[in-house]
Amino acid sequence: MNPRILTLVAALTSLPLSAAEIDQEQAAARAIAASFGGQLQAALKPALQQKGAVAAIDLCHTEAAPIAAEQARRSGWAVGRTSLRVRNPDNQPDGWEQAVLEQFEARKRAGEAPASLEWFERVAVEGGTELRYMKAIPTGPVCLNCHGQQLAPEVSARLDQLYPDDRARGFAEGDLRGAFSLRKRLD
Question: Any long-range contacts for 144-149 (C-beta under 8 Å, 24+ apart)?
Fold first, then answer.
């Protein structure tokens, strides 16, 4: 287990769940985030290869939320994505997500690989306990078709149409694109 996560877990020993149960929940959250990302990539890659970036944008626009909802339905975790530079305003980070994303950026600047960045915590919230997990999404080469610094005119036009307040452009390979964000209430 990551030392930062272990320290946080140790600090919260007054909350329900054993260390083994915490490890299980973290593993479950990690698997859900990987599955969500894998499903999204599996849908986007063929659209991008066969029909181009505009088709991939349309597919992401219509399919990302249903994929997240299905992951949530099957797992009992709330599942989503967020970023410091969101494309969809519905994915705006809340205070906790903002703080973790800023920490991810600081850790990346300190030399940690974006693909290795994750956060897990268990916190007391009004009415119970909540587990929270975030896993960084690094910008890969395929991401640059829709999130890169130089976009094709038709890609920019479609993004302008679907997301007039889009801030998710101008990324370079290896940048921190955002993160998968999961929550689970234990009450």
Answer: 144/171, 144/172, 144/173, 145/48, 145/53, 145/56, 146/53, 146/56, 146/57, 146/60, 147/87, 147/171, 147/177, 148/172
Q: What is the pLDDT of residues 146-181, one digit of tens each?
A: 999 999 999 999 999 999 999 999 999 999 999 999
Residue 15 has pLDDT above 80, yes or no: no
Other C-beta atoms lying within 10 Å of the C-beta of residue 45: 12
Burial class (CB in 10 A: 0-12, 13-18, 19+), 4: middle
Predicted confidence (pLDDT) per residue in 81-94, tens digit: 999 999 999 999 99
- CATH code assigned at 155: 3.30.450
Domain with 122, as residue range(s), is: 3-185
Provide the number of structural domains found in the chain.
1
Quote the CA–CA distance of 156 and 161 in Å, as a whole number. Answer: 9
